[in-house]
Amino acid sequence: MVHQPGTAKERSLLIIDTLFQQLLAVFVLLILWEVFKNYNFNNAHAWHVVLCTLGFGLCMAEALLLFNKENSFLVNVDRAKRGSIHAAVMFLGFACITAGIALKINQKEERGSKHFTSTHGILGLVSWILTFISIILGILVGCAQKSTSLGRPASYRIVHLLLGVATYITGVVALGFGLHYLVGYTGLHGRNALIIFLALYVSYSLISSVKSCYNYFFG
């Protein structure tokens, strides 16, 4: 049976989610616009920015928002299917991030530059490592739900959730530091606007995860 938001609260939350989804889209599209407007398509750095923005800025945000009951894209999708979509989106995000980092490493190798010396680079590497570990834990969560010999699924889920939140925060902070490199094209005000957009939708995307953590430990 298709569920239609009935109460004023449900409709309001659905509208709020839609607005934040649009804010996320605006953030990603603005970065893509600036990159493709100012770089050649064969520029490795351009694709590093594009892929890491899609990985951290889009896929990870959507992976967290998938479990929002008010998610405007998945109103009638049950939790089990959301889990499968979450896994697919995370794998896609990880692939984008891996490719983006690999392109940057290759570019630095060709130039004889040192790797991971900036705050942006270090945080990006840390978030990649955390993403890899988080995916492994996510696989264990799925296995634990099918086999009781692995222990309580809830324990795996909360560790996966906590690590996932830490990964996401680290990744978007790295993305925020990376916006500094676009200031020559966006201008200072444009860069600041992008940071505000990023902060707003990141804060919203974390609400559901924070509530889940609170309910697990104190609920």
From TrEMBL:
<keyword id="KW-0349">Heme</keyword>
<dbReference type="InterPro" id="IPR045150">
    <property type="entry name" value="CYB561D1/2"/>
</dbReference>
<keyword id="KW-1133">Transmembrane helix</keyword>
<feature type="transmembrane region" description="Helical">
    <location>
        <begin position="194"/>
        <end position="217"/>
    </location>
</feature>
<dbReference type="GO" id="GO:0016020">
    <property type="term" value="C:membrane"/>
</dbReference>
<feature type="transmembrane region" description="Helical">
    <location>
        <begin position="156"/>
        <end position="182"/>
    </location>
</feature>
<feature type="transmembrane region" description="Helical">
    <location>
        <begin position="125"/>
        <end position="144"/>
    </location>
</feature>
<feature type="transmembrane region" description="Helical">
    <location>
        <begin position="45"/>
        <end position="67"/>
    </location>
</feature>
<dbReference type="InterPro" id="IPR006593">
    <property type="entry name" value="Cyt_b561/ferric_Rdtase_TM"/>
</dbReference>
<keyword id="KW-0813">Transport</keyword>
<feature type="transmembrane region" description="Helical">
    <location>
        <begin position="12"/>
        <end position="33"/>
    </location>
</feature>
<feature type="transmembrane region" description="Helical">
    <location>
        <begin position="87"/>
        <end position="105"/>
    </location>
</feature>
<dbReference type="GO" id="GO:0140571">
    <property type="term" value="F:transmembrane ascorbate ferrireductase activity"/>
</dbReference>
<dbReference type="GO" id="GO:0140575">
    <property type="term" value="F:transmembrane monodehydroascorbate reductase activity"/>
</dbReference>
<keyword id="KW-0812">Transmembrane</keyword>
<keyword id="KW-0249">Electron transport</keyword>
<protein>
    <recommendedName>
        <fullName>ascorbate ferrireductase (transmembrane)</fullName>
        <ecNumber>7.2.1.3</ecNumber>
    </recommendedName>
</protein>
<keyword id="KW-0472">Membrane</keyword>
<dbReference type="GO" id="GO:0046872">
    <property type="term" value="F:metal ion binding"/>
</dbReference>
<keyword id="KW-0408">Iron</keyword>
<feature type="domain" description="Cytochrome b561">
    <location>
        <begin position="12"/>
        <end position="214"/>
    </location>
</feature>
<dbReference type="Pfam" id="PF03188">
    <property type="entry name" value="Cytochrom_B561"/>
</dbReference>
<keyword id="KW-0479">Metal-binding</keyword>
